[in-house]
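Troubleshooting: if your tokenizer reports a length mismatch, compare your output against this known-good record of 236 residues.
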Amino acid sequence: MASPRPILIVEDDAALRATLAEQLSLDGDFTADEAESAKEAELKLAHADARYDAILLDIGLPDGDGRDFCAKLRRDGRRMPVIMLTGKDQEQDVIKGLDAGANDYIAKPFRLHELLARVRAQLRVFDNSEDAVFIIGPYLFRPAARMLLEASRNRKVRLTDKESNILKYLYRAGGRPVPRQILLNEVWGYNSAVTTHTLETHIYRLRQKIEPDPANTRLLVTEGGGYKLNPLADAA
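Known-good structure output:
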């Protein structure tokens, strides 16, 4: 089972915000963090450990227009999906939201199942786009390009499709160890002809590529009968 994906809810209506957070968490596919204003959202996004896979953004915030905040996110280079929530569903309002960089637009009141479906759809698109970039130690990881870029050394590390999928799944686990069999099933599918030895071979090769000292692993470690990624580790 994939790790729940963190969603930031930016909404000034406390009751709606709490309901959304509760329902997202109950769904099992997501975890929720909350902000009541653009300023609070910006502070959360600026935190060193912040990782949000998508943002639910109200158009009417107490300190500004959500569309302006969305445009600022894009100017700052933040590419995660943004779904705007609003009581305005006139065509010109929808166009303004999309022009500001929003990926989708849903009018209140909305059905929760529809909102969840839209979030999942946008995440699927994003995960396979060139915009998806994750930080793993000294690397920028671009899954779509199957590449790690080590900017400090101007070095590119090419990955195979399986290596890229292993890294992406472990990253999504949020620092928790993933048992070998689960990782095998997620990357290779339920194929009885593929054994954990295949996974171990790929992990070995991946470590040779990304660890300065593969005998003393710091980024991709063995733990709890499986493997764990330490994306914040300094591999230097």
